[in-house]
Amino acid sequence: MKSKILLLMAGLLLSLNAFAISLQDAKAQGLVGEQVNGYLGVVVNNSEASALAKSVNAKRKAHYEKIARKNQISVDDVAKLAAEKAIAATAKGHYIQTPQGKWVKK
To answer: Residue 40: beta bridge partners?
Structure first.
């Protein structure tokens, strides 16, 4: 079951690359970052960053729900696993959120 979750998580990360240019640009500019809850957070509050985060998070939530149903686990558990992977995969110099909620550059 864990391998299925990891496979689905890899699929999620790859699917996010479909709009990677704008997401990666926003990350490179320090506008958004990875949160500890598995969702994208807004580092610099502006309409463009907020709209991007809202769009990405809606897609992530749909993927998390699909994975959770398939593996009969909670959406929160899937999101926590996704957060660990997303934070580990975050490029140096991009923002990640600490468990205390503070934004730091990786």
So the answer is: 34
